[in-house]
């Protein structure tokens, strides 16, 4: 189908399909439990892990924005007791439902080939990489799950910084990335590595999907979760296939009638873009609506803002994570969270958790242009902050003096 005859999808419909696929149209006040939390991760496909804790770990914030009653203990139970999730790499470190694990077997093999050819392999693993790898693997096989700190650094090689890895630390990461070790647990966010066959015996024994099965899973599941997407967006979702492979899949799936080509409207002034959708996209969009009677505080790594260009096209919202931007060059702040109201991104807020004082502190608040800070909107923001405070364990909400008047 040519661009001239492809159906035009409004930005509003594309937003609703994206929000629905990403679990942001479901009732966040529904009963919170392990089954609900597992269902949210299944719907998303994965939840990104991040170590910054100015407010709360990103994975907890992502789940908390979709479920008011979510608590960090829910995820710990699923990860380390029920083992219904595993930790590995998508575009970044992520928590993934175990049903997807067979598809990581192909990633393990590709990653090993790439790492063995890289300078990282010899530089990080020292003069005898194979000996170091074997030593680390043998210790875990005989002693059980171990931390990096269980491998002695020695007085002859003191630590000099965060990225000053010992060869043993590099070997642990190499064995994890290539599928011979799993994250068995965590100790205050420090990884505890265990043999994959001991941590996930059934997953370890699962058959390897064919290349065709893997490609079909990666593209089709991504399209279901994005609603409407370009071939490049499909490839980027899991970071499991190459853009050219996703492009070829789209052409084949379109010829087979499994997907349709559309043109997606943009509201940031850019031209409509060619993309793909499931044939039922129009019927699905007509059934969707976004409740505008509440505000959600999103994580900076939330899937709907992770793709900065897509957020601009569909929401007219320019979002950049600025934690690694030098302070004088930041437009907003170190750890800023978008505010979602209905199907609109209406502002951003910079909160932090004062753990000593037990307070959720609002350092800054910015409303988007043409968004009025009405009394009703302020009330909904305070409600959202109360939900967030309960999730992170804050006893009170405090506004910095410079923000009290604005709010």
Provide tags for this entry.
18 helices, five-stranded mixed sheet, Aminopeptidase, four-stranded mixed sheet, 407 residues, alpha+beta, 42% helix
Architecture overview:
The protein has 407 residues and is α+β, with helices and mostly antiparallel strands. Among the domains are: 118-199; 295-404, Aminopeptidase (3-Layer(aba) Sandwich). The protein has helices at 11-21, 34-44, 58-64, 72-80, 101-116, 119-125, 129-143, 167-177, 196-199, 201-204, 211-226, 231-238, 243-255, 281-286, 303-306, 308-315, 375-392, 401-404, and strands at residues 7-9, 47-48, 85-89, 93-97, 146-147, 181-187, 190-195, 228-229, 260-264, 273-277, 295-297, 337-341, 344-354, 359-367, 396-399. The protein has a five-stranded mixed beta sheet. The protein has a four-stranded mixed beta sheet with strand order 1-9-10-8. β14 (359-367), α17 and β15 form a beta-alpha-beta unit. Residues 158-162 have low confidence and may be disordered.
- End-to-end Cα distance, whole Å, is 50 Å
Q: What count of helical segments does DSSP give?
A: 18
User: What is the fold-level CATH name, i.e. the topology of the domain at 295-404?
Assistant: Aminopeptidase
Category by helix and strand content: alpha+beta
Could you state the oligomeric state of the chains shown? single chain
Going by CATH, the architecture of the domain at 295-404 would be: 3-Layer(aba) Sandwich
How would you write the strand order of the largest sheet? 11-12-13-14-15
Q: Please write the CATH class name of the domain at 295-404.
A: Alpha Beta
Radius of gyration: 23 Å
Shape: globular
- Helix coverage percent of residues? 40-55%
